[in-house]
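Note to self: user wants both folds in one dump. Writing first protein now.
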Amino acid sequence: MGRHYLPNLAHRDEMLKEIGFTSIEDLFSDVPKGMVQKFNLPKGKSEYEVFRELNEVLGQNRTALEMPSFLGAGTYFHYVPAHVKYLIERSEFLTAYTPYQPEVSQGMLQALFEYQSMIAELVGLPIVNSSMYDWGTAMAEAALMSARVTRRKKFVIPKALSPEKKAVLRTYTAGPGMEITEVPWDERGQVDMEKLKEAADGAAGVYVEVPNFFGLIEENLREIGEIAHEAGALFVVGADPTILGVVEAPGELGADIVVGEAAYFGNPMNFGGPRAGIFAVRNDKKLIRQMPGRIIGMSRDADGRRAFVMTLQTREQHIRRAKATSNICSNEALVAVAAAIHLATLGPRGLSELGEVILKNTAYLKKRLSEVAEVPFDGVNFKDVLVRFERPYSEVHEMLLARNIHGGHYIGEHFPELGEGALFAATETTRKEWVDALIEALKEVA
């Protein structure tokens, strides 16, 4: 009798048929060939033999330290202090679920309260929820929230926006029937201000990012906010929090809502996830009541002792489904706690130093890349740098991989007007010798 390694194996064909596939290969057809590893573990193998076989497969992977990576566009190699992982693996955090009973969840509630407090100071807005799934879903929730508050159906975004975020946004807004309007970039890669004025008319919200998808720091952020407000729209800013030690907080520039990615602190790349989305608003009851997720607050118990509670919980688990703002669950809470620990470790000075190092490394990468390819946009870059090549970038990328260098993220598929464009990224972990090796390799292949 054959052994079933997965409890649902007997129902595999039935499950595949239900979702419209005929085989496991069809199910994973979007994964590049050669990337799917099959395991045939016959009856009789010992646990050690299975461990050894799996370890040999895992040994084919190379880390960002073994293979210098310039792949950015939303996922970046940041250093995470060792104590962060140690602390979040404590059972008090690791096994904690949604704190329905505050009397037995004070530790987790306080940790989330501290996360909210630090993010509030970072983004310049006083009200922060205890995290979303990721940046993309936070942006999409901001669009829905803008529509609820303004009773309008249009949301304006820059054309220079991550294709993944656009896909999430369109998925979230399809049901409510929202209109998504894209504003092109100008000759410097910034939001086209004249086109923005036209698009903002009748909008529920206007969204912009710092830095933008091309890695450029938007130079007209305050003016963009003024255009949004003059049109009666909410001003929504998506911010990479690692830049906020060296630029003005979005809340100080007029943002009504700030979203972003908290997982850049305290969490490894981990194949792209998990994440924790930032969501903050100004102190306005109309905005606070429409916020998705949960807000943790500090209060006093019956004996006058400090106590932490869920102050706002507009999820369908807690209130009538028709009144719920969002069904955001709890899997990102541990990621948010890790971010809080890392932020507390850095402090204001450390955060500024982090941003300065990333700016310096990005500037060096951009300067060197301009020696071997076209860098179409000037301005100040943070992490990502857009580069255009004369030959197909897929060829360039494969040749770099053959030289043990992971190149940039190809964006020509989604932005054909940019030609064979790719985003190359640097962070505080990027070493000068890695950049120099990249440039020498590009001289040979580009």
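First done. Writing the second protein, which came from a different request thread.
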Amino acid sequence: MSDTRMERMRSRFQAALAPLELTLDDDSALHAGHAGAASGGGHYNVRIVSLQFEGLKLVTRHRLVYDSVHDMMHKEIHALAITALAPSEV
């Protein structure tokens, strides 16, 4: 189930942000026993490099990332650590 969840997340990030680079890691095992883990929501770490982030503030970049998986938040995704960079910052 986690692989399918990660595939859906990856697909949504790609569709919404057309990343030049996308790294998605499942850190759920590091949070075993955590309240969010008990509810079935996973802990993920994503690094996205996208032209869409050029000139945007960090909060706006994060909002774009969250918006791409909004219906998965708090159900399938308990926590999402985001690194959102423009190509000029890499």
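Dump finished. Worth passing along: The first helix runs from residue 2 to 17.
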